[in-house]
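[Automated response] Your request has been received and processed.

Submitted sequence:
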Amino acid sequence: MLAQHAVFNPIDYWPLLAGFVGGIVLLLILDLFVIEKLAHPRGPDGRALPVSENRSFRISLLWTAICVAAALGVAVGFRAFALHEITANPLLLDGTRYEGLEPAKAAGTLFLEFLTGYVVEMALSVDNLFVFLVIFRYFGLDHDRQHRVLFWGIVGAIVFRAIFIGVGVGLVQYQFVLIAMGLFLIVTGIKVFRSGENEVEPGKNPFIAGLAKVIPISREFDGTRFFTRIDGRLFATPLFVTLIVVETTDLAFAVDSVPAVLAISQEPFVAFGSNICAILGLRAMFFVVAEAMQRFHLLKYGLGLVLVWVGLKMTLLPWLLKSESNPQGHVPILVSLGVIAALIGGTMLLSLVIPAKQAEAESPAKEDPDA
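Generated structure:
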């Protein structure tokens, strides 16, 4: 099915996919074995050395910037690759949504779709980090344990996103699936906007009860180990329970984020690449967000509006914009990128202008319990 609708079928262009995944693995290794040791050095005995919080924050901020630059580099490189391939073989566009475009126009559109998908997924990823912070506080994780859970949580997220996107790209070829996804995003966006907060109760996660039936769970941590042995029996530690909660929570987020990126582009390399690039730097970004989380208290409202906008792109707007010159009713990608940037940037700016307590008092979602 992918071969019928994709410009670059992953099966035919597997070296491109392998090179991208290899680069992701390399950055993850660099993150785990180099960046983390720079931000939180250890002595010969394995104990953490004293280091200023400002240094750790600056290193995390720098690595986050490097991950963003790497994502932009991937987008630019993909545009150059697409232009070369489409120019050499214009038939690649036949039967796709880019059919009839000049090679430069098609490559430019793919580039802008990648950037738009990346911006949306980055914004949603930041929202995820607020929930992860709640989970870590609930389980009482120190920095070392947070780092380990975040790293393996990101690895798991990459695998699950690849599966979800692979299935989703095939399903969205059916119009009713696209509309259903759009309606789901609109409803989700309205819920996010009205509630303003992500409610998460780690202790009620159903997967924990299921895990306890498979393997006994110890009450105490064993350093940063996921499993430990007690009296010769294998136990899962609370750290492994935390990882399960993070992974299952991320799966719930993927239900929102994958339809959102597929609304922007159904090209497998664009959807997968922008999504994975967005979650690549989450470990370092988590510590940046933890420092600045109070500054952008209105960001959730912007994210809710972004989900509504993307949902409208999949449902109502194609019908309203349909014309002889635009038979598919496509929203220009620059317009979509501008709207998304304005919503996210606007709520971030308002967060700096309107104090958190004032925004909370004026929020329509807050009701007087005595009324």
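Summary generated for your ticket: DSSP finds 14 helices and two strands in the chain. The longest strand covers residues 227-230.
If you did not submit this request, please reply to this message.
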